[in-house]
Amino acid sequence: NLSDKLDKALHILKGHGQITEVNVAETLKEVRRALVDADVNYKIAKEFTATVKEKALGQNVLKSLKPGQLMVKLVKDELTELMGGDVEDIDLSGKPSIILMSGLQGSGKTTFSGKLANFLATKKTKKPLLVACDVYRPAAIDQLHVVGDQIGVEVFSDRGNNDPVAIAKAGIAHAKENGCNVVIIDTAGRLAVDEVMMTEIANIHEAITPNETLFVVDSMTGQDAVNTAKAFNDVLNFDGVILTKLDGDTRGGAAISIKSVVNKPIKFIGTGEKMEAIDVFYPSRMADRILGMGDVVSLVERAQEQFDEEEARKLQKKIAKNQFGFDDFLKQIQQIKKMGNMKDLIGMIPGAGKMMKNMDIDDDAFRHIEAIIHSMTPEERSKPQIINSSRKKRIGKGSGTSIQQVNQLLKQFDQMSKMMKMMQGGGGKRMMQMMGK
Length: 437
Ligand code: GDP
Ligand code: MG
Fold this sequence. Notes:
This protein is an alpha/beta fold. It is 57% helix and 9% strand. An eight-stranded mixed beta sheet has the order 3-2-4-1-5-6-7-8, with helices on both faces. The protein binds guanosine-5'-diphosphate and magnesium ion. Guanosine-5'-diphosphate binds at residues 103, 105-111, 189, 244-245, 247, 270-273, 277. Belongs to the GTP-binding SRP family. SRP54 subfamily.
């Protein structure tokens, strides 16, 4: 993938003191090739490397103290610039603010509508309403209701009505009557760009004049993503791009191309199927990610959001008093699961992405552990030392696991408890720091 290729291209320069004009040119050629391979338009890639070269010469990279590092920084800064430079907010000033989703079928509009509603609802001042305007499939309306229930956000729909413009208007009226200050309108997409879809979304757009029109695109669709973005932008002149499915192997080639071709900012990214798998798009972090440095900042930030501080303090007390039990352990697992897919998280750790590529890690990794803990009595959970062999047998049977698996978990838990005790003093903060490093 792009990241591996850029890694290779930059390898000569990274850390090493000696570079010459020849290997600057050679490296930039590799960088260009890697970008083109990742679906970046050839012209854009060529301009990109030309700019980097010019800057490198202008800053006298070859004579600098650490030319390799300076080159990496130049490439990174330039990539960041290419993807928009600064973070772009969405317009929430409307009363209510109207956000219109557009994009092909399967791009992730419905999922992202839910994620955005959830994201905004956690800011205490926002009360979102989801509006179901995909009238072609009853299942689409159901899907939005499921999402709404999951995150505790109201969904407005009108199953008898097949006029999306009317539903959108009624939804906005409903929001006004019920004190909702953000209206997120989920629309129908089709598998490919066609006139019917474009006319429909243009009609909705014209009728409701949204504060934000967002174009949702599957980052795995490569060069097609750029063509689709162009088609939608020609009709809607949208305000921002949402790049979904960035949890897979894709490394952001689409981000570079789309920004360059339609010149609209990427505002959010989707990194998984869960409602929490949403991140603000940071061009500089994406550049890091493309360059294979790992999106550590995002990882740490997400972890900080999910770990409730109060909980953490309570936990620290328990550890100090040797009262950490399986109930607490279970809570920890649930916290980790809330952070998203394990694979996504591991992929964000520098270096780990490559190592873990072939390993089969998913949420199921915790299934056995959870089952075993659920089969324990409250007393066993708080005092694991009482779990003798007959108790082990019972727990194994109850959870559908083997005695070996029960033993293994007890052993791991024991080791972990000892380690936690040892780490006391530094506390949770130190653990977070370790995670970051
Ligand atoms: P829509 O047709 O545009 O409304 O697309 P959906 O929201 O129904 O999403 C299509 C599929 O993509 C569903 O199976 C989603 O679970 C999945 N999906 C959406 N966003 C993401 C994402 O960021 N990562 C992953 N892995 N899957 C996603
Ligand atoms: Mg949908």
